[in-house]
Amino acid sequence: MFEQGDDMKTFKTFLMAATALSMTAGLALADANGNSQYLDQGGDDNTATIVQSGDNNQAGADGLYTRIDQSGDGNTLKITQSGDGNKAGASSGGIDQKGSDDFLTINQSGNANTVINTGQFGSGTSKMTITQSSNDNRVGSTVQDRAIPGGTTVIGENVMTITQKTGDGNNVDRAEQDGVANKLVLLQDGSDNSIGAALQGDFNNGGPDGSSNDNGAGFAIDNSTNGLMQITQKGNGHSVNLAGQSGDANSLKINQSGSEQNVETAVQIGNSNIGNINQSGNENSASIDVLGDDNLTTIIQTGSMSVGSIQVDGGINNNLMLEQQGSEQLAALNVIGGDNNIVKALQKGELNSIDLTITGDLNKGDIRQDGCENDLIGVVSGNSNQFTTKQTGAGNSINFTQGGSNNTYNATQG
Q1: d(CA 274, CA 332)
Q2: At residue 11, what are phi and psi to the nearest 5 degrees?
Q3: Partner of 172 for a Cys bridge, out of 29, 139, 211, 289, CB 3.0 to 4.6 A?
Q4: How far is residue 112's CA from residue 108's CA, in Å, rounded to a whole number?
Q5: DSSP 339
Q6: Nearest-angstrom CA–CA distance, 94 and 146
Q7: How buried is residue 18: exposed, middle or buried, by Cβ count under 10 Å (0-12/13-18/19+)?
Q8: Are 298 and 277 in contact (CB under 8 A)?
Q9: In the predicted model, what is the mean pLDDT of the chain?
Q10: Are the beta carbons of 373 and 398 closer than 8 angstroms?
Q11: Are the C-beta atoms of 276 and 250 separated by less than 8 Å?
């Protein structure tokens, strides 16, 4: 069939295409469950479409010849699985696109489906879209890495969108982007859904599923700039274990609506970043840590029995705002070793408390509580700090301590 000197890669592609055709033909005659699809494409501007209907089907698996790989630029891969217990990808690689300007789309409809591992690697711009609908679905590790070996970061403007809709008990283990001007969007709609780690920048990667991930402190190189991370969770009992950005001029937006929501740790490392966490409902909690200068950080919580925490470690010219509306709220604001920062806190309701700790110079604060039986504890150490506290209502208390020189403190109760 082939003369001597023909490209063996062409023969390999032909053989795999013939295999895929024979498998597709078999689907029409056999039961639609338990089928497998594998793919290896090399070159530019290729398009591959995989459609599987039924239960316990698999697109890509562990092994040298059972993966789904596209190598080249401008390639498109579409995977559609309908049914329960289907899998896309594998634990050691799974679904990879290596090149620039690639498009990856995975749609799974049904229960207990899994996207195990997916990755887009190389220079340029790529888009990845994963959609799962129904209950108990999982997205393992998704990566867009635009960094060239040797430390050079490429302007990529990559987009990753993961949507888990109209279902309960869904999980995203890890979503990660390296590069410049990337956009990461995560949406979960239902109850008891969770996000393990959403990361932009050079964090310690750990294993393929993030299980050997850093311990919450091992963040390294600033290489994510002008990035946007947007996380939206609607329903009850959702959680975000770690949302992190490393670099400058990044934006982080987390919105949770419902009760018993949790943002365990949000981290921004770098300068001129914007962090915003908004929670509506009862018994929610949110924590964000900032390392760098000229950052703007805001937590807004509406409901009762919520906990909000903002901490700045050794930065200057940062602006912190924590607002809580409801009863039995707890706010913690800490600036450790930073100068010229602005701290604002507002609580509206009853039985709320604020714990404020500031160490550094030239810091300013405006702390307000509107309601009854609220508590404020403040400790400020340093020089030339200026703080104002105001409580409106009955049965409130203030315990404020300042140490240092040329500090100013004004308190109003009534």
Answers
A1: 19
A2: -65, -40
A3: 139
A4: 10
A5: B
A6: 19
A7: exposed
A8: yes
A9: 84
A10: no
A11: no
Q: Residue 8: what are its φ and ψ, rounded to 5°?
A: -65, -20
In what helix (H) or strand (E) does residue 14 lie, and over which residues does it extend?
A: helix 8-27
Question: Mean pLDDT, to the nearest integer, of 187-200?
Answer: 94
The span from the CA of 135 to the CA of 137, in Å, is 6
Which residue bears the tokens 């607002």?
323
List the beta strands (DSSP E) in 272-349: 274-280, 285-291, 296-302, 307-313, 319-325, 330-336, 342-348
For residue 84, how many other CB atoms are within 10 A of its CB? 20
**Which helix (H) or strand (E) covers residue 114, if one does?**
strand 114-121
Q: Which residue has the tokens 């049914």?
A: 83
R_g over Cα of the chain: 25
**Spatial contact of 310 and 322, defined as CB atoms under 8 Å apart:** yes
Yes or no: say if 310 and 333 are a contact pair by the CB < 8 Å rule: yes
Strands annotated E in 208-305: 219-221, 224-225, 228-234, 239-246, 251-257, 262-269, 274-280, 285-291, 296-302
Give the pair of three-digit tokens for residue 110.
């049904």
Question: Which amino acid, residue 241?
Answer: N
Pull the structure tokens for residue 229. Answer: 């991370």
Tokens 């063996």 -> residue: 8
Residues in the chain, how many?
A: 414
- The backbone torsions φ and ψ at residue 14, rounded to the nearest 5 degrees and listed phi first, read -60, -45
Other CB atoms within 10 Å distance of the CB of residue 397 = 13
DSSP state of 155: B
The distance of Cα 252 from the centroid of its chain, to the nearest Å, equals: 9
- State the pairing for strand pair 58-59/36-37: parallel
Tokens (6 digits) for 75: 């390639």
**How many other β-carbons are positioned within 10 Å of the β-carbon of residue 132?**
28
Give the position of tokens 């403040």: 378
The tens digit of pLDDT for each residue in 285-338 reads: 999 999 999 999 999 999 989 999 999 998 899 999 999 999 999 999 999 988
Q: Whole-structure pTM over 0.70, yes or no? A: yes
